[in-house]
């Protein structure tokens, strides 16, 4: 969602801010702006709606050479998409950018009635609150700390005032802020990708902390202004990883690089000769591993579907486990009870999803151990879980999640494989899956290359349809859900995923020649039943596409057969083809593939 960047140092702030905002574009936004202080200590604000390119156009007419500033990409929550609502907000002596939501902004606004508010935003109220505290000789740091205690809600903020021209104040509560420490420069951002190429040394601010940043570095305090010794950490990743690398879109790059990223996910974690899987991060003793009887998997969107698919494998690998997979936005408000011998897997690419984070906190309150299955290193979820494993998919820039899905499923399967050793698990299956995991990167690469043109042609054929059903049974069912999600979010085609056994319970009423149906059919003991569903749809005039690893005769409008030695994990291969299919349909329809309308990469508000 919204993104923050700030700079103080030797470079021209405007350039660093624009560069940083471009790196944050992928998060999804509808307006952007920057505020800088020029070398004569005069503030300048530029804001625009639409893409960063619009902001660049505005700035072309008024370039400034100051060395301090803040920038923001806004995803509207309070108030429409207008220049006036865009950040930075300026009130009195305060310039502020803000991520998050101030819940008590209406009551604060009433108390601050002496200000002539211009926008509909909670952020402008926050700025006024800081300004109202910034008097009687108190410092900007103290004014921000006081205001931070007066607001209710979530925030990541960066603030400056012309009164203290070499200082940026940043603070966080529930919205990430990272301080990059360079040589005579400090760059702050809500996302580490904006810092890459400037510095690798960083402080990840914790909730309830604020920092005073200058070109000499940063000092961290709590809101009672007690000085804290902050950990200096190393930022993961490099600039190449956040570039398109010759591809037309990040999405295509991320689909196509799955062999490489999966190799990183698996590296050092499986031994196909011994049939063993091992993850370093869960932080559980042997006794704790033995005692686990119940697993709850929590996630949103694609992360939820990854959990659902993993659960099918986990219950086969560890037969004495009960597994529950839950949608975070629902679970957080349920009166749920978890047995003491439970472990929660918190699945999130970004590690910042508000609902997932809220669930994590609810589960922790009940004394249950939480393990993160997270991609973004140093993210809030990764920091708050008791243990966990990074999925090592590398930066995922496109809003639609692809390579992270594959990495999440595989990581949870490895966790189950490891757990199985303490639970007299299914040894034969562990050995088979370990072998398949070792072969999976190569097989994904081959599948994507071999069927690329076929999928592209298929996408062209179906790009004009407005409705689709995705169907599958058993491990192909979560794949059907994920396939439908991918299609709808980037192509805007109405698509629904169903377990094919559910067809007769309702969705078959939709089937006619205006719909197309994608069947993922795995060559296993349910094959005949899957084919039954396909026949029922064909009999009613539905246009059918089958993705399968079977070589049996199948009657459908279009079939893509993968010929792979991967059997148990075949749904992951079929899913990569669904990703490619959705991608090419979206391209064909002329959509903004990497930043689909209304969506944000990390959903940091409810
Ligand atoms: O960062 P997270 O994995 O927690 O994100 C969860 C969902 O918001 C995310 O998977 C979303 O559904 C994607 N747009 C799917 O492509």
3D architecture notes:
The radius of gyration is 25 Å and the shape is globular. The chain has 2 domains: 3-235, 4-Layer Sandwich (Glutamine Phosphoribosylpyrophosphate, subunit 1, domain 1), CATH 3.60.20; 250-588, Rossmann fold. It contains 17 helices and 27 strands. The strands form 5 sheets. Strands 3-2-4-1-10-9-11-15 form an 8-stranded antiparallel beta sheet, covered by helices on one side. Helices cover 35% and strands 23% of the residues. The protein has 606 residues and is α/β, with parallel strands linked by helices. Strand 23, helix 15 (476-491) and strand 24 (494-499) form a beta-alpha-beta unit. The structure holds 5-amino-5-deoxy-1-O-phosphono-D-mannitol. The site of 5-amino-5-deoxy-1-O-phosphono-D-mannitol has 17 residues, from helix 9 and helix 15.
């Amino acid at each position: 969602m919204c993104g923050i960047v700030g700079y103080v140092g030797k470079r021209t702030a405007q350039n660093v801010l624009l560069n940083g905002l471009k790196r944050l574009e992928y998060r999804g936004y509808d307006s952007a702006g920057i505020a800088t202080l020029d070398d004569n200590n005069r503030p300048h604000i530029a804001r625009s709606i639409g893409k960063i390119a619009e902001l660049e156009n505005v700035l072309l007419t008024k370039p400034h050479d100051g060395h301090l500033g803040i920038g923001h990409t806004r995803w509207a929550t309070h108030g429409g998409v207008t220049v006036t609502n865009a950040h930075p907000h300026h009130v009195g002596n305060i310039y502020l950018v803000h991520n998050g939501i101030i819940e008590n902004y209406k009551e604060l606004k009433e108390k601050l009635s002496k200000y002539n508010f211009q926008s509909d935003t909670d952020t402008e109220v926050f700025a006024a609150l800081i300004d109202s505290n910034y008097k009687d000789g108190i410092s900007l740091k103290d004014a921000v700390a006081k205001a931070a205690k007066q607001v209710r809600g979530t925030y990541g903020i960066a603030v400056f005032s012309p009164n203290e021209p070499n200082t940026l104040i940043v603070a966080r509560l529930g919205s990430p802020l990272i301080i990059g420490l360079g040589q005579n420069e400090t760059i702050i951002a809500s996302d580490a990708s904006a810092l890459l190429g400037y510095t690798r040394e960083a402080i990840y601010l914790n909730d309830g902390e604020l920092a005073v940043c200058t070109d000499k570095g940063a000092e961290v305090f709590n809101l009672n202004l007690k000085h804290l010794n902050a950990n200096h950490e190393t930022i993961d990743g490099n600039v190449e990883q956040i570039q398109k690398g010759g591809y037309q879109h990040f999405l295509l790059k991320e689909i196509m690089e799955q062999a490489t990223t999966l190799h990183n996910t698996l590296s050092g974690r499986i031994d196909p000769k011994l049939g063993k899987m091992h993850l370093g991060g869960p932080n559980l003793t042997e006794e704790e591993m033995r005692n686990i009887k119940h697993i709850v998997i929590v996630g949103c969107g694609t992360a939820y579907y990854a959990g659902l698919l993993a659960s099918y494998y986990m219950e086969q690998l560890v037969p004495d486990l009960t597994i529950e997979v839950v949608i975070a936005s629902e679970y957080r408000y349920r009166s749920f009870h978890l047995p003491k011998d439970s472990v929660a897997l918190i699945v999130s690419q970004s590690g910042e999803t508000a609902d997932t984070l809220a669930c994590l906190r609810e589960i922790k309150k009940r004394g249950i151990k939480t393990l993160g299955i997270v991609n973004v290193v140093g993210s809030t979820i990764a920091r708050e879980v008791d243990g966990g494993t990074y999925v090592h998919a590398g930066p995922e820039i496109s809003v639609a999640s692809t390579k992270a899905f594959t990495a999440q499923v595989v990581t949870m399967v490895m966790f189950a494989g490891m757990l199985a050793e303490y639970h007299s698990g299914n040894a034969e299956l562990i050995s088979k899956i370990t072998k398949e995991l070792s072969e999976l990167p190569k097989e994904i690469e081959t599948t994507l290359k071999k069927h690329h043109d076929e999928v592209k042609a298929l996408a062209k054929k179906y790009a004009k349809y407005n409705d689709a059903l995705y169907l599958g049974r058993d491990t192909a069912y979560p794949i059907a859900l994920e396939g439908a999600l991918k299609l709808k979010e980037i192509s805007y085609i109405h698509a629904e995923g169903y377990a094919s056994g559910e067809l007769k319970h309702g969705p078959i009423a939709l089937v006619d020649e205006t719909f197309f149906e994608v069947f993922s059919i795995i060559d296993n003991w349910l094959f005949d039943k899957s084919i039954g569903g396909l026949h029922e749809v064909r009999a009613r005039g539905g246009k059918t596409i089958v993705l399968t690893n079977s070589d049996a005769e199948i009657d459908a409008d279009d079939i893509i057969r993968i010929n792979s030695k991967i059997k148990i994990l075949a749904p992951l291969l079929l899913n990569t083809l669904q990703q490619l299919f959705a991608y090419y349909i979206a391209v064909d329809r002329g959509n903004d593939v990497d930043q689909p309308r209304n969506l944000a990469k990390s959903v940091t508000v409810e």
